[in-house]
Design goal:
The chain contains 8 helices and 12 strands. The chain has about 220 residues and is α/β, with parallel strands linked by helices. The protein has 2 domains: about 5-120, 3-Layer(aba) Sandwich (Rossmann fold), CATH 3.40.50; about 125-219, Winged helix-like DNA-binding domain superfamily/Winged helix DNA-binding domain (Arc Repressor Mutant, subunit A, Orthogonal Bundle), CATH 1.10.10. The chain is elongated and about 55 Å long.
Length: about 220
């Protein structure tokens, strides 16, 4: 059963969401402040988070960067495009504006879980001429095999599993530790620089884009 954490101090909205999630077969958990949410996350790892921005204590904007490796759908009354863009760059997987229809929220949740399932099941990842076999750990660009270090492979795999999305530096460090425990924040830039050179050397294209102050993504 998929576990979803609802972080919202509005009891009425939280109750509506929890009831809808339960009907869909999800297990819902509640947190009513940013501090309570972080305490919960230190003890339990949900599969997805629904995050309101206007929270007592720590705001949703302050909580979001501290969430590692869990898709977050932001739910907020803020409708400004710049706000949405900044939150997506900060690590949110999606954004839905209040007031919203429960049917739409459930659809967005289903899309997130479908993306997670597809990414985890795919043994061969592909993007713009790059192929990565997650079973054999073989990588190729324009059908030319390239040799990757353990860390370079872990970085490329995470970027390819999140195509089109900015992957923050903190998320990179958190997630690639599963494949390579020796990567540090200081050495991450070097590993990514070496990876970019290898990809570019195969077809002349720069496949990895740095988003200043935030992280990296595939072009």
């Amino acid at each position: 059963m998929k576990k979803i954490l609802i972080i919202d101090d509005d009891i009425h909205i939280g109750d509506l969401i929890e009831e809808a999630l339960s009907r869909e077969g999800y297990r819902a958990f509640r947190a009513y402040s940013g501090t309570e949410a972080l305490l919960f996350l230190s003890q339990t790892r949900p599969d997805l988070i629904l995050l309101d921005l206007m929270l007592p204590g720590l705001s949703g904007e302050e909580v979001l960067p501290q969430i590692k490796g869990i898709p977050v759908i932001v739910i907020s009354a803020k409708a400004d495009v710049d706000d949405k863009v900044q939150l997506l760059f900060s690590g949110a997987a999606d954004y839905i504006t209040k007031p919203f229809q429960i049917k739409e929220l459930l659809a967005r949740i289903a899309v997130q879980f479908r993306s997670i399932d597809l990414a985890s099941c795919a043994s061969v990842l592909e993007h713009d001429g790059i192929t990565l076999d997650t079973v054999t750990h073989m990588a190729a660009v324009a059908k030319k095999e390239i040799k990757l270090t353990r860390t370079e492979y872990a970085v490329l795999k995470l970027l390819m599993q999140n195509q089109g999305q900015v992957v923050t530096k903190s998320l990179l460090l958190d997630r690639i530790s599963e494949d390579t425990p020796d990567c540090t924040e200081n050495s991450l830039k070097m590993h990514i620089s070496n990876l970019r050179k290898k990809l570019r050397g195969a077809d002349g294209q720069d496949h990895i884009e740095a988003v200043w102050g935030i992280g990296f993504r595939l072009r």
